[in-house]
Amino acid sequence: MFLRDVKKEKLEDREVVFSDEERLGARQCNLVRLGISSGEKPITLIVKGQNEEDLYYRMGMNTSFKVMMKDYCERKGLGFGTVKFLDPEGTMLNETHTPEDRKLEDGDAIDAFTDQIGG
Q1: What are the residue boundaries of the Ubiquitin-like domain, all occurrences included (predicted)?
Q2: Is the pLDDT of residue 54 over 70?
Q3: Which of 66, 77, 72, 19 is nearest to 48 (CA)?
Q4: How buried is residue 32: exposed, middle or buried, by Cβ count under 10 Å (0-12/13-18/19+)?
Q5: Which of 31, 40, 75, 118 is the most buried if burial means most Cβ atoms within 10 Å?
Q6: Beta-carbon neighbour count of residue 29 at 10 Å?
Q7: What is the pTM of this model?
Q8: Cβ contact 52:115 at 8 Å
Q9: What are the E-state strand segments in 61-117?
Q10: Angstrom distances, CA of residue 38 to CA of 31, 35, 42, 62, 105
């Protein structure tokens, strides 16, 4: 963990250190760390699936969404391309875009849902 990822809070007259991931609710079992280039600003995005536990992705601001999308599909046993990802405004994410392109902020939620056939 990098020092820049740590924030301090006062809790009952003592100082407690929380990482950004802990502050957002991530735990070891649902935190996915993707590669972050040296000097690249990190961001944590929350991917919310349908009726499933959220996954927290720690990635670089200039990392393409394709890396996150492929990882999510593999973890959920879904085919790549069968899942749609929406940014906080409800716009579908393009796999070639990055969090920087979409002006996302730390802790933003991405909705993930599978295509449904029929009515």
Answers
A1: 43-119
A2: yes
A3: 72
A4: middle
A5: 31
A6: 7
A7: 0.73
A8: no
A9: 83-86, 109-114
A10: 20, 10, 10, 11, 19
Chain centroid to Cα 113, Å, comes to: 15
Kind plus residue range of the DSSP H or E element containing 66: helix 65-76
Q: Report residue 118's pLDDT band, with 50, 70 and 90 as the boundaries.
A: low
Reading the block at residue 79, the tokens are 């085919």
**Which amino acid makes up residue 101?**
D
pLDDT in tens, 3-22: 344 444 434 444 434 455 55
| 62-111 pLDDT tens trace | 999 999 999 999 998 999 989 999 999 999 999 999 999 999 999 999 99
Q: Determine contact, residues 63/98, Cβ cutoff 8 Å.
A: yes
Per-position DSSP letters for 5-40, written without gaps between them: GEEEEEETTEEEEEEHHHHHT--GGGEEE----TTP
Per DSSP, 93 falls in state P
